[in-house]
Design goal:
Blueprint (H helix, E strand, L loop, with lengths): L4 E7 L3 E7 L5 E8 L6 H18 L7 E8 L2 E3 L4 E5 L4 E4 L1 H9 L3 E5 H12 L8 E6 L3 E7 L2 E2 L33 H4 L1 H13 L14 H9 L3 H25 L3 E5 L7 H13 L10 E4 L6 H8 L4
Helix pairs in contact: 1-2, 3-9, 5-7, 6-7, 7-8
């Protein structure tokens, strides 16, 4: 075999997921093992190298076919130098991942943050396949994002572009403090954390809602209650969708992407969320920005990170 393949590493605080992709972004083989954060960066880097060698050995591909290794890490990254400046989940600071892995593997290594590589994965072979300009939102505990322009990750001046969750859209009188320290970020209302907070607040105020029957309310509980006709839950869903749509409208008039892709656990709410987002988006942009532009769910799920990481070495 002579076709090149690409290896992606999704480095999480608990597990490391490794994948091999072909040049079309098809995920051909995967391998997953523990991270072992408590053993320190050196041990984790050794483990990554071991897992990469293992997955290639277990595949039908030769080592010489591997074009490079890409890694996605949640945290602040010096992308140009391939250094993790700070990764809270890993308890890493100033770890030269690119240099260390290249020494261990003898292959080119590229590094980026987890949201950017997830966006690249969706652009390569997911919901944005075939399009050059897309914006990806990831809705989970927080709201992350990634921007793809002309088929490549847009990283900005210091690699911090795409922090979509920190677009300030909530009016001051309604705003609460976001985890970033600012008031009114979309993350504070449209993440799973924000949705659960609004639900708990409604229950504590004594509003009439089936959510009061849940001991530990989750975002999924809120969406299910809304689908069942619970007025309080529906109000919360509409509020979360409203500010997402508003943030997309702000992004659209700057970047004019062809597609917005929404991934993460919250995106699995389905039509009850997406229909509201689409409506709000259309109400908040000039008509020209709605033509040929769509808002769709992500396709790759938990594989987006490993596929996108593999794609960092596309040439």
């Amino acid at each position: 075999m002579s076709d090149k393949v690409y290896v992606g590493v999704d480095l999480g605080g608990t597990n490391i997921k490794i994948g091999i992709c072909d040049k079309q972004g098809n995920l051909l083989h995967t391998y997953e093992g523990p991270t072992g954060v408590e053993q320190g960066p050196e041990a984790v880097l050794n483990r990554i190298a071991e897992y990469v060698k293992q997955i290639v050995s277990d595949s039908p591909f030769e080592w010489e076919q591997v074009a490079g290794v890409g890694a996605g890490v949640a945290g602040f990254i010096d992308i140009q130098n391939g250094t993790v400046l700070f990764a809270p989940n890993l308890k890493w600071k100033d770890v030269a991942v690119k240099r260390e892995l290249e020494q261990r593997l003898g292959l080119p290594v590229a590094l980026d943050n987890d949201a950017n590589v997830a966006a690249l994965g969706e652009a390569w072979s997911g919901a944005g396949a075939g399009l050059k300009n897309i914006v990806v939102y990831t809705l989970g505990t927080g709201v992350g994002g990634g921007i793809i322009i002309d088929g490549k990750i847009y990283q900005g001046f210091r690699g911090m572009a795409g922090e979509l969750g920190h677009i300030k859209v909530v009016p001051d009188l309604e705003a609460i403090q976001c985890g970033c320290g600012q008031l009114g970020c979309v993350e504070s209302v449209s993440s799973a954390t924000g949705i659960v907070r609004m639900a708990k607040d409604a229950v504590e105020r004594g509003e009439t809602t089936t959510l009061s029957l849940n001991e530990n309310i989750t975002a999924k509980d809120v969406f299910n209650a809304a689908k069942d006709g619970d007025e309080v839950a529906m109000r919360i869903v509409k509020r979360a969708a409203y500010y997402l749509g508003k943030s997309m409208a702000a992004v659209a008039v700057v970047l004019n992407p062809q597609r917005f892709v929404i991934g993460g656990g919250v995106s699995r709410a389905g039509d009850i969320l997406f229909e509201e987002i689409r409506k709000v988006y259309a109400q908040n942009v000039p008509e020209a920005f709605t033509q040929g532009v769509d808002i769709v769910p992500a396709k790759l799920g938990n594989d987006a990170g490993v596929v996108g990481a593999a794609g960092l070495n596309l040439r």
